[in-house]
Amino acid sequence: MFKKIAGVLLGGFLSVSMCFTSFAAWVSDGNGWWFDNGNGTWPASCWLWVDGNQDGQAECYYFQQNGYIMLNSTTPDGYIVDTNGAWVVDGVVQKRFTTVSNNNYTTTGSKSSNTTKKKEGKSSQSTKNESESNKTTKTENTASNKSTKATKKELDSVILYDLDPVQSKYTYNESSAKTVQGKLLSNVLRAGYNSYAEYYTGGKYTTLTMTIAPESGFYEDESCMVQIIGDDNVVLNESKEINYKTNSFEFSTNISGQEFVRINIIGDITYNSYILMDNAEFKK
User: Fold this and answer.
1) Fold for the domain defined by 4-153
2) Is the whole-model pTM more than 0.85?
3) Cα 189 to Cα 262: distance, rounded to the nearest angstrom
């Protein structure tokens, strides 16, 4: 699975929080596998979706602080990776279609970081020390994650404001924002022109609910809709048209069985018009 990845033309704007490359390849040395971004950098301390065999589906790998992927173990944030380093749930490798964003190399949330110096070989002694350190860290993380996992299992819903999207563009978490009608909202998602946010749900939730309203300053001659996309790029739902006269309204979508859910903003708006998504949450 670890094959050289041919040059890839990345179109559009990429968030500065993402790891990206114009030519990339898997590299193996005496210490393990790492990913060469092709520009003197490599991903570190982040998750990265990689379509290594260019079949249109990417697998997700966790890159440690030293740049090497973890194999057959539990990551610091409590997820399982198999012997090839791919993220698995109940033994099943998790995949995503790369055609969604035309970007095969996307990291999750704010965990991404790039190292710019050249990778140097490590002595067997230092490698051993790192291994022992990783074992200790892994044990500590496993213990600390037990209570977190237990809490997650007890939750019947999760607020999107508290989640890191798998990928996003022009979608922001705002601690406070005001609607066109002058109502002040807190802890909302704010999205505008050509924006999206995609979340991993793992098929655990049945419904996505939110309250939608245009933000103060929404242009009078512009309009848009909220579109919900599921697995295989299937459109699950679209909201009514939103313009500067639109009052806040409830919006609910059936997401049963969906591994990934993507929120798109579509329509005729510019960078000056935004909508607010209040109380957006996944429910079981």
Assistant:
1) left handed beta-beta-3-solenoid (2.10.270)
2) no
3) 13
Q: Would you list the DSSP string of 209-248?
A: EEEEEEBTT--TT-EEEEEEE-GGG-EEEEPPPB-TTPPP
pLDDT in tens, 96-144: 776 443 344 443 333 333 333 333 433 333 333 444 444 344 334 444 4
Domain at 157-283, CATH from 2.60.120.1060, 3.30.450.40, 2.60.40.420, 1.10.645.10:
2.60.120.1060
DSSP 201: -
Radius of gyration of the chain (CA): 20
Number of Cβ atoms within 10 Å of the Cβ of 211: 16
Residue of 5, 31, 35 whose CA lies nearest to 19: 35
- pLDDT tens-digit profile of 145-165? 444 443 444 478 899 998 888
* Residue 98, burial from CB neighbour count under 10 angstroms (0-12, 13-18, 19+): buried
Instruction: Give residue limits of the domains in the chain.
Output: 4-153, 157-283
